[in-house]
Amino acid sequence: RGGHPTSVPDWMNLTQQNLTKAGGQLAGSFHLRTVVNGILAQVASNLKTSCEVTDEAFAKRTDEVKEAKHKLEDQKAETIVKIQEIDNTIRSLEQAVMAKQGPLATCQAKIHQRR
Fold it and tell me: Do residues 19 and 27 touch, judged by C-beta distance below 8 A?
């Protein structure tokens, strides 16, 4: 029958060959699974490390932004106080100038009369 085993010893021989091949493939499969598991474990470890590093960097940057915000808020408050002080000084100077207007007008009138 053209290459098909027909006798019991042929079947036993073919079965033994198939079992040997299957054993080799099974061993190869276990080895491949071990390699893949190692790679997956390394990738998972790398991802976990990357995630932790990213979380730390994000937390640090968040703290830096919060600190910068507080500094800017403090600078804004100081600037507002200084603006108010300058406004008060300007008003005080304007009042002083206005207070001198009367005596200045009197002096100018006397000078004008003397000429």
Answer: no
Amino acid letter, 100: K
> What tens digit of pLDDT does each residue of 38-50 get?
999 999 999 999 9
Q: What are the tokens at 37? A: 């598991």
How far is residue 113's CA from residue 101's CA, in Å, rounded to a whole number? 18
Q: Identify whether the C-beta of residue 11 lies closer than 8 Å to the C-beta of residue 5.
A: yes
pTM tops 0.85, yes or no = no
CA distance 24 to 43: 28
Phi, psi of 18 (to 5 degrees): -65, -40
The token pair at 61 is 């940057």
